């Protein structure tokens, strides 16, 4: 009934115009002419799109896999109400629910909420806001777009934080907080106790043993305030996908777990992301985890060979005192042979080097296949890859380099365990 009444009113208003234009519309039916005029008038009565005013607020960062909300405040300073469909457009990887129905009376404002569920790391920037304002009858509409900038930074998810409590408990044991003494030599003298089988004979305190009725050994605490430098290789080797994510994402997850653990141990943690230039750097941050995830979020693999000489020079320039340098890169023989090995001695002569590499579980699966001739060929190729990785690992070990080679799920805890082992042995 409301629509019929409005249609009659518009037709009544249009009648004088129709009478004036009727001689020129001799070939058009009267009903068609009226309908055309009604559509034109409906368009003229639609609320203005150009005059709408917009402002944004809401989330500026979110972890990958989590949902966030961005609000859009729309104000209508015009004299006619706006009945519209609004699209708040974002890149597809932002996972936006971007279509909204909007009724905005004249002189008022409304708040529209867009939910985002990003599927990729990095900065996700709003594209534009498009509004389609319909007339009272819904027969015609005006449409316009507005640039309303906003950026949401999608941070690394840090899945490996589930391993943190158990590693912190082991760290407390190393620090002596749980009254568990360390066997072996550290760097800071703690106390004396009786010798038991398995103790390092270099820890025997002969003077204390001469005064006691038993052989006494020194116990040690790991030193604090060591220096840990995390180096992310963002070159070609980090672009290879393992499962649904590039190797770089798995390396980031491992680096975050190690960084938080080392910071809790009282060590200074720095980050460097490099391929042929520095893409991110964090040095001496007091709020370490937010600084790291914000620096890592926009990183993407580059399809270029990493300049190992430039990387080593950058590490040496930034790190004067002896440090544990953790290089997260690949163990492919050819890139290492041409890149890292010629400059390896420059790095190992001044720092303790550890290399962490993301292994592809599919290679191990292929190596176990024997079902048919094709599977046997695949297994042979996989065995060759595994043999090359073992040879590279052995060669690095001869240079005093610690190597951690594991699939994405196992790399973070194994890297953390190797750090704790070095800490307990006093090798940092």
Q: How many structural units, i.e. domains? A: 2
Count of DSSP helices? 12
Strand order of the largest sheet: 17-16-13-18-19-20
Radius of gyration: 34 Å
Rounded average pLDDT: 86
Q: Return the CATH topology of the largest domain.
A: Rossmann fold
Strand content: 25-35%
User: Can you name the CATH architecture of the largest domain?
Assistant: 3-Layer(aba) Sandwich
The main pleated sheet reads as: 6 strands, mixed
Low-confidence runs: 1-7, 177-186
Number of strands: 20
Helical/strand content category = alpha/beta
Q: What would CATH call the class of the largest domain? A: Alpha Beta
Share of residues in helices = 25-40%
CATH H-level homologous superfamily name of the largest domain: von Willebrand factor, type A domain
Keywords: Lipoprotein, Membrane, Transmembrane, Transmembrane helix
InterPro entries: DUF58
Pfam family, one: DUF58
Organism: Amycolatopsis japonica
Verbal overview:
Helix content is 35%, strand content 27%. It has 428 residues and is an alpha/beta fold. The protein has 2 domains: 1-155, Immunoglobulin-like, CATH 2.60.40; 224-425, Rossmann fold, CATH 3.40.50. The strands form 6 sheets. A 6-stranded mixed β-sheet has the order 17-16-13-18-19-20, sandwiched between helices. Strands 5-4-8-9 form a 4-stranded antiparallel β-sheet, with no helix packed on it. It starts with a helix and ends with a helix. The chain crosses the membrane at residues 29-47.
């Amino acid at each position: 009934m409301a629509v019929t009444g409005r249609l009659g009113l518009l037709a009544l208003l249009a009648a004088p115009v129709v009478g004036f234009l009727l001689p020129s519309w001799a070939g058009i039916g009267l009903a068609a002419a009226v309908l055309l005029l009604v559509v034109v008038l409906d368009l003229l009565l639609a609320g203005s799109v150009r005059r709408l005013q917009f402002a944004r607020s809401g989330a500026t960062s979110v972890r990958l896999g989590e949902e966030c909300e961005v609000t859009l405040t729309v104000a209508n300073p015009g004299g006619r109400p706006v009945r519209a469909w609004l699209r708040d457009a974002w890149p597809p990887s932002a996972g936006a629910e971007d279509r909204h129905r909007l009724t905005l009376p004249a002189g008022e404002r409304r708040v529209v909420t867009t939910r985002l569920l990003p599927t990729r790391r990095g900065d996700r920037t709003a594209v534009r806001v498009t509004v389609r304002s319909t007339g009272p009858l819904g027969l015609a509409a005006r449409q316009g777009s507005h640039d309303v900038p906003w950026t949401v930074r999608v941070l690394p998810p840090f899945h490996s934080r589930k391993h943190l409590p158990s590693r912190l408990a082991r760290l407390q044991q190393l620090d002596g907080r749980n009254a568990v003494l360390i066997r072996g030599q550290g760097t800071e003298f703690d106390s004396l106790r009786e010798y038991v089988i398995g103790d390092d004979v270099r820890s025997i305190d002969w003077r204390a043993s001469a005064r006691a009725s038993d052989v006494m050994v020194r116990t040690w605490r790991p030193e604090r305030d060591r220096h840990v430098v995390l180096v992310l290789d963002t070159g070609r080797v980090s672009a290879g996908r393992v499962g649904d994510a590039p190797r770089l994402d798995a390396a980031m997850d491992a680096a975050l777990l190690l960084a938080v653990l080392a910071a809790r141990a009282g060590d200074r943690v720095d980050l460097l992301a490099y391929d042929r230039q520095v893409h991110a750097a964090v040095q001496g941050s007091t709020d370490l985890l937010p600084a790291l995830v914000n620096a890592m979020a926009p990183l993407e693999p580059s399809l270029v060979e990493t300049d190992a000489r430039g990387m080593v020079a950058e590490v040496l320039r930034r790190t004067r005192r002896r440090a544990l340098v953790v290089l997260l890169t690949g163990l492919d023989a050819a890139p290492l042979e041409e890149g890292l090995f010629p400059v390896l001695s420059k790095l190992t002569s001044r720092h303790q080097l550890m290399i962490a590499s993301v292994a592809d579980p599919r290679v191990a699966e292929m190596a176990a296949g024997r079902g048919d001739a094709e599977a046997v060929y695949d297994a042979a190729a996989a065995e060759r890859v595994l043999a090359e990785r073992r040879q590279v690992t052995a060669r690095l070990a001869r240079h005093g380099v610690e190597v951690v080679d594991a699939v994405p799920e196992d790399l973070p805890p194994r890297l953390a365990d190797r750090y704790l082992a070095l800490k307990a042995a006093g090798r940092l």
